[in-house]
C-alpha cells in the first residue's frame, strides 16, 4: 500500500509556528547496519537540509534542532570530538546554501565550552544569515534546559533593582533566545518517550509527538504525518 499523502491533508491555517525536534537514534541506526556510530551521525546531518525545505514550504517559522545536550559530554571522548568536527563541517559546507535559501541560523545553548573553530564557524553562520527571513533554524548545541533556567535566574539577579520579584513574563525575557515563540509541536524520533532536558520552559504547552523512526530515516513525509497528528489535537491551554 502506498504511504498516505499527509501533506495534502494538512490545514494551512493551523501549521505550528515553532517545531522542536529531538533528533535521536543515529547510533542505533548505524549499529543495526554494522556501521560506526559516527556514520549514523553523518547520515543524520544529511537529513536536515531536505527537512528545512519541507518546513519552509509548509510555512513553519522556527525549527529548533537538539543537536548536542549538556549531558552528551558524558559520551566517550572520541564520539564527542567526532560530533564537534561533524557540526563544524556541517556549518562550513552549508553556509552558502543556507544563505541562498533564506534560512536564518541561530544558536541556543552555551557556546563557551566548544572548540574555538566550532564557535567561529557557528558565529559566522549566524552573522551571514542574520538578514534572512524565510525560516529560523535554531541549533540547540551544548544546550540543557535546567542550565538555561539557572542562567536566566542569574542574569536576572545580576540586573534587578531592590524590591523586584520574578514573574513568568519576565523569566521568558532572560532565556537564551527570548525572541523565539513557545514550542507548538515537539517531535522525538527513535521510540524514546522522554524530554532529555530539552527546552523545559518553552514546551510547557507544546503538543508532543513520538515516532519510532530513527533520525537518519526521517523524511519530509514523516514531518507531514506528525503535523497531521498535531492538527488532530485540541489545544486548550487550560481553558475549556
Ligand atoms: C542522537 O543520536 C544524536 C545525538 C545525541 C548527538 P544518538 O547518538 O543518541 O543515537 P542513539 O540514541 O544512541 O541511537
Ligand atoms: C537527546 O538524545 C539529545 C539530543 C538529541 C542531542 P540522547 O540520546 O542524548 O538522550 P537520552 O540519553 O536517550 O535521554
Ligand atoms: Mg540517543
Record keyword descriptors for this entry.
single chain, about 240 residues, alpha/beta, Undecaprenyl pyrophosphate synthetase, six-stranded parallel sheet, 6 strands, globular, binds 3-methylbut-3-enyl trihydrogen diphosphate, binds magnesium ion
Give structural notes:
The protein has 240 residues and is an alpha/beta fold. The chain contains 7 helices and 6 strands, in the order E-H-H-E-H-E-H-E-H-H-E-E-H. The protein has one domain (15-232): Decaprenyl diphosphate synthase-like (Undecaprenyl pyrophosphate synthetase), CATH 3.40.1180.10. A 6-stranded parallel beta sheet has the order 3-4-2-1-5-6, with helices on both faces. Strand 3, helix 4 (116-128) and strand 4 form a beta-alpha-beta unit. It is globular and about 65 Å long. The model has no long low-confidence stretch (mean pLDDT 95). Bound molecules: 3-methylbut-3-enyl trihydrogen diphosphate (IPE) (2 copies) and magnesium ion.
Concise summary:
This protein is α/β, with parallel strands linked by helices.
CATH topology, by name, is Undecaprenyl pyrophosphate synthetase
Mean pLDDT: 95
Please identify the oligomeric state. single chain
How would you sum up the major sheet?
Answer: 6 strands, parallel
CATH architecture: 3-Layer(aba) Sandwich
Main structural class: alpha/beta
Could you spell the SSE succession in H and E letters?
A: EHHEHEHEHHEEH
Helix content: 40-55%
Spatial gap, N to C terminus: 39 Å
The CATH homologous superfamily is named Decaprenyl diphosphate synthase-like
Widest β-sheet, arrangement of strands: 3-4-2-1-5-6
The hetero compounds bound to this protein are:
3-methylbut-3-enyl trihydrogen diphosphate, magnesium ion
Beta-strand share of residues:
15-25%
Count of DSSP H/I helices: 7
What is the CATH top level name? Alpha Beta
Total strands: 6
* Estimated radius of gyration: 18 Å
Tertiary shape: globular
Question: How many structurally independent domains?
Answer: 1
Which spans of ≥5 residues are poorly predicted at pLDDT below 50? Answer: none
Amino acid at each position: 500500500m502506498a504511504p498516505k499523502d499527509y501533506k495534502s491533508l494538512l490545514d494551512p491555517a493551523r501549521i505550528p509556528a515553532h517545531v522542536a525536534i529531538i533528533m535521536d537514534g543515529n547510533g542505533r541506526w548505524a549499529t543495526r547496519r554494522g556501521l560506526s556510530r559516527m556514520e549514523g551521525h553523518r547520515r543524520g546531518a544529511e537529513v536536515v537540509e531536505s527537512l528545512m525545505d519541507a518546513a519552509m514550504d509548509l510555512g513553519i517559522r522556527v525549527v529548533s534542532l537538539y543537536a548536542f545536550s549538556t549531558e552528551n559530554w558524558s559520551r566517550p571522548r572520541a564520539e564527542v570530538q567526532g560530533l564537534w568536527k561533524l557540526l563544524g563541517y556541517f556549518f562550513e559546507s552549508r553556509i552558502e546554501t543556507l544563505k541562498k535559501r533564506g534560512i536564518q541560523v541561530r544558536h541556543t545553548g552555551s557556546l563557551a565550552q566548544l572548540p574555538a573553530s566550532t564557535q567561529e564557524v557557528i558565529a559566522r553562520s549566524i552573522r551571514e544569515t542574520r538578514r534572512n527571513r524565510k525560516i529560523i533554524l535554531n541549533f540547540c548545541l551544548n544546550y540543557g534546559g535546567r542550565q538555561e533556567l539557572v542562567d536566566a535566574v542569574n542574569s536576572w539577579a545580576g540586573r534587578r533593582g531592590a524590591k523586584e520579584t520574578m514573574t513568568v513574563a519576565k523569566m521568558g525575557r532572560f532565556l537564551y533566545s527570548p525572541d523565539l515563540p513557545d514550542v507548538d509541536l515537539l517531535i522525538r524520533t527513535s521510540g524514546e518517550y522522554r524530554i532529555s532536558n530539552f527546552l523545559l520552559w518553552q514546551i510547557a504547552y507544546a503538543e508532543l509527538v513520538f515516532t519510532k523512526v530513527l533520525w537518519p530515516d526521517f523524511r519530509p513525509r514523516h514531518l507531514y504525518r506528525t503535523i497531521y497528528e498535531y492538527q488532530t489535537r485540541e489545544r486548550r491551554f487550560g481553558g475549556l
